Amino acid sequence: MTHTRLACSSILILGWVSACHQAPHRAAVQHDGRPNIVWFMADDLGWGELGCYGQDKIRTPRIDLLAAEGMLFEQHYSGAPVCAPARCVLMTGMHSGHAHVRGNFEIGGWGDDDGEGQLPLPEGTATLPGLLQAAGYSTCAVGKWGLGGPGTSGEPNRQGFDHWFGYLCQRQAHNQYPTHLWRNGERVDLEGNVWKNLTGKQYAHDLMADEILGWIRDNADGPFFVYVPFHIPHAAIQVPEDSLDEYDGAFDEDPPYVGDQGYLPHPTPRAAYAAMITRMDRDVGRIVDLLDELGLRDNTLVAFSSDNGPTFNGGTDSTFFESAAHFRGLKGSVYEGGLRVPLVVNWPGKVPEASRTRHLSAFQDVMPTLLEIAGVPAPDNLDGISFAPTLRSEGDQREHEALYFEFPSYGGQQAVRAGRWKLVRRQLLKAEPTIALYDMEADESEAVDVASRHPGVVKRLMGIADREHQPSEHFPFPALD
Question: What is the mean pLDDT of the chain?
Answer without folding.
Answer: 95
